[in-house]
Write a structure and sequence with these properties.
By secondary structure, the chain is mainly β. About 5% of the residues lie in helices and about 60% in strands.
């Protein structure tokens, strides 16, 4: 972790030097490649995106996801799916899948942010016996907003996940899970193809059982990182690294997150 922190500091210093050479009005080349905080930009017509993330904690647990985004058929409507994976000493495999629809409500303009609300259906595809899923359908919604301020992009999220009739591990009773969240990020353009990032998320998980009890857990995550991109004709490749640090139930955990994106046109 110390080596990674040193590397990030070196990248920051290098980026400051290069960033001074870039005019604030130049085009943002990377706009929809955040790691934890959703950005409000749908896919352009005839362009689709493949996104893979992988996170490993210091204790050895890991999680990953693959997302593919498609215009349906244009920028105003977007369909996507997310396949999450996770692993530990006891089990590894696919978790509960998400099928997503996102609507480009507002394009960014003078005095207004971009807005693109998303609604997702959660499918119980993971194995509950192995602890890889919750065994219940659910709904998730998120409202991302994005606004540029020169060399900075600011993103904000608000939403939640509703999972009814989830079976508890201990009592085997069914509970309803409600998990609201708020999130925000600031991204600095060091160069057109190199960005430094600071993302944060505040998540709550509240369960309501048959007796009306409502225990609540809170998780705070802060993640510094950076991303680097390359354009090859109509194809864009973006890679990135983040260090999410989370605080929950009085315990702090740190992880290493890696990111890869391939954005490319449909075959003609």
């Amino acid at each position: 972790m110390k080596r990674l922190t040193t590397t990030l500091a070196c990248v920051l210093l290098y980026s400051v030097t290069l960033g001074a050479q870039q005019p604030a009005s130049s085009k943002w080349e990377i706009t929809d490649n955040s790691f934890l905080v959703e950005e409000s930009f749908n896919q352009e017509p005839r362009i689709f995106q493949n996104i893979f993330t992988w996170t490993r904690e210091r204790r050895g647990q890991w999680s990953a996801s693959f997302t593919q985004e498609w215009p349906a058929p244009d920028k105003q409507h977007q369909l996507s799916f997310t396949i999450p994976f996770s692993g530990s000493d006891s089990a590894s495999g696919i978790n509960d899948l998400l099928v997503n629809y996102r609507y480009q409500l507002l394009d960014e303009g003078p005095g207004r942010p971009a807005l693109s609300p998303r609604l997702s259906v959660v499918l119980p595809s993971g194995s509950t016996s192995k602890g890889l899923g919750l065994g219940a359908y659910g709904l998730q919604f998120n409202v991302p907003a994005s606004k540029q301020f020169g060399d900075l992009y600011v993103h904000a999220n608000a939403g939640g996940t509703w999972r009814p009739r989830v079976e508890t591990d201990t009592t085997r009773r069914r509970v309803n899970l409600w998990s609201p969240h708020v999130a925000g990020s600031v991204i600095w353009r060091a160069t057109p193809m190199l960005n430094l990032m600071l993302e944060s998320i505040l998540e709550f998980e509240q369960s309501v059982d048959v007796d009306g009890e409502t225990p609540r857990e809170r998780t705070v995550t802060i993640s510094p990182g950076f991303r680097r991109g390359w354009n090859r004709g109509d194809t864009q490749i973006v890679v990135g690294v983040g260090v999410p640090v989370s605080r929950a139930s009085g315990e702090t955990t740190a992880a290493l997150l890696t990111y890869f994106s391939l954005e490319m046109p449909f075959k003609k």
